[in-house]
Design goal:
144 residues; Aminopeptidase; 5-stranded mixed β-sheet; 4 helices; 31% helix
């Protein structure tokens, strides 16, 4: 397994992987990944088994308040995905470590993330790789 930083040329691959996790089509996600991979404020990493892409992670700088953090900007894990047949091999942990290294390299001293309140698998993963829970939030809205 190898991990490398993605470039704009990898936007389609990132979008295909991300569409398996997020509720959007690869066509919708590809332009966003093209922007992210060209930005100094974000980074994406791809994991490969041989020449086959099997996972990705996306991180970026957050300049707004990040729950539990005291500095700004904060490196923030926006998403990490590994194809199910490659779970439990440490790939996601390595992808997150690449994101943390990137954040450190751009001057961050803190790194954040989040997950849906009922996503117990994501919560367990975050805790297992060294995150500490900083709080829980339920958002509300209503039509006016």
């Amino acid at each position: 397994m190898t991990i490398r930083k993605a470039t704009p040329a990898d936007s389609r691959t990132l979008a295909q992987l991300a569409s398996q996790m997020w509720d959007a089509s690869p066509a919708e996600l590809e332009p966003e990944f093209a922007q992210l991979t060209a930005s100094d404020e974000a980074a994406c990493f791809l994991a490969y088994e041989g020449s086959e892409p099997i996972g990705f992670a996306q991180c970026q700088l957050r300049h707004d308040y990040v729950e539990g953090c005291e500095t700004s900007p904060v490196g923030f894990l926006e998403g990490v995905y590994v194809q199910p047949e490659h779970h439990r091999k440490g790939i996601a942990r390595h992808l997150v470590a690449a994101c943390e290294d990137w954040a450190r390299g751009v001057g961050c001293t803190e790194f954040g993330s989040d997950c849906e309140i009922d996503n117990t698998d994501s919560l367990a993963f975050h805790l297992a790789i060294g995150f500490e829970e900083a709080g829980r939030t339920i958002w509300f809205n209503k039509k006016l």
